[in-house]
Amino acid sequence: MQLPPAVTAHGPEIHIPETLLNHLSSLDRLANRYFAMRHGHSVANQQGIIVSHPDNGCAGFGLSEQGRAQVVASLQQEARLDADSIILSSDFSRALETAAIVRQNLGCQTRIDTDVRLRERNFGELELGPDTAYQAVWQQDALDPEGNFRAGESANQVMARVTALIVELERRHANATLLLVSHGDALQILQTAFARRDASEHRQLQHLQTAEIRLLSLAQLEVR
Q1: Which of 98, 166, 153, 159 is nearest to 123 (CA)?
Q2: Is pTM, for the whole model, over 0.90?
Q3: Residue 182 near residue 39, CB atoms below 8 Å
Q4: In a domain, 8, yes or no
């Protein structure tokens, strides 16, 4: 995929050992503020299909007209982001298009950085099938967060990659406001990690609507 001039790509895709799950578990505080933003309503949402493989998600299935309007409306209600905010995005079209609208509306001078760890959860054999199949995946997550249902990415694998990114950002930045533009399951599991809860519980937390922006707060460590 040819990245637009305002976008930079971050490194090759990496594979994190599944034994390393929530990389935030040892942190008692964060040096930065993190906001999650789910991409706006997309063509895949419009068609009611699952698009989770990079070959499909990076090449097409961008935002719908409804999605573009959602992003603008969401920004109009969000006063905590400004031109100094740092935007990181999945390299899927629907996320990148969302990030580009955010950058333009906030007047950010810095480029959008992409990172593969913010990609959509890979749903394996369910690719391009009906999105009603998500329910079966989430039911399996609750039973076994390490399971690769229908050859898809496990909830634990998603938690490992998204939290590894946060730890890296903690090393790279200080006192920064970072907006992470990503996808439903990736952000759902990320906020579960911030809550210091098991990946199997990710559907117990309030899910993000399309184009919704949410502050991620790190739960306090339990005192033993």
Answers
A1: 153
A2: yes
A3: yes
A4: no
